[in-house]
Give the backbone structure.
Amino acid sequence: MALNGIASALTGSKLRVALVGLVVVAAAVGGAFALGVLGVPSVAAVNNSFGDVTNETTVVETDLVVSNPNPVGVGLDGVSIDYTVSMNDVEMAAGGREGVSVTSGNSSIAFETNLTNDAIPPWWRSHVRNDERTTVAIDATVTSDLLGRSANLTRTREVETDLIGAFTSKETRPVNADAPLVDDPVLYVNETRGRWGTVSETQTPIELEFDVYNPNLEPYVVTEIGYDVTMNGVEMGSGSTEAEYVIPSYGSETIELTAALRNERLDEWWVTHLDESVNGHQVSDLRIEFYAVVELPSGEEITVPLDALTYEETIETDIFDEGLHQGNGTGSEDSTDSDGGTSDDSGTSDDDGNTTDDDGNTTDGGGTTDDGTTSDDGNTSDDGDNTSDDDGVLPLTVG
């Protein structure tokens, strides 16, 4: 009995010592944190890239660097990481890690999150509505359970594209019927204009205008203009006008056409945009082909492929600043840490389209014709016989 009493006393004493030890350690940790001896782990850097892509999901590969300012042996196990990627406030991917162990100094942690391709259409709508601009935001938060504190890093990147800007052109292009007993060209397209329409849940419209001139003695009737739009070969939309346009002899008329992209095809296009084997990583070719149905003075209707009006534009993006290429997609980057510090890598460009070489010389890309108009390629021409009509369009006639 005496021995059992002694053993119980010793056991109780050991438990009390252990509890006191834990209290002392906890107090020491808390006191050290209060005195600034221990610091909260923070995010020092975050790098992203796209991994495997399927018809349903896109893998986002992340390499996150956590900086632990504390000495070895403090025991900062139980660190958790939360991570979110959004584009124009549309959440694209989210994930995290629990129970991460970080040593003193910097620790690199690699993990993957899945981007659901269903998020591509909502992002696309926001991109077009925002004048083809996207803010890519990456939010990473590191939380220490031991210290009961967290630190975060927000990294943003601006991505811009210009898919249809080059459609606006004053280049004169002939429309040839290539048909028997028909003198070509039957019409001229003297100017084209394009802009985005109002984006809906189902469609992204492109509002197009064609200034058409008739160089013939008889009026021509354009009963239909049709279009086909593809992006990296994916059929995005097709259709035609419903109104007829009469082009008077030696006169002009503006033809309007709405080419609508089907938003339901955007996730399929997205797969090709990231697939390097299709057109290069984050590279897409937009192509719009047109045809016209023209009623001749004889009453005969002919379908004319408008090959001269075929529109092609290559778009390149670098959403995560992987340094892929420099092209029609541009970006600038800001990073804000938990201390509120910000860095900016953006640049500016000349709004007039002037180009400056390495020696500081500036070249003006514009040229002026004798009638006071400016040509797109800077060339000047005058045959001395051409005059402008009432609309200011230079008539082009068959000699």
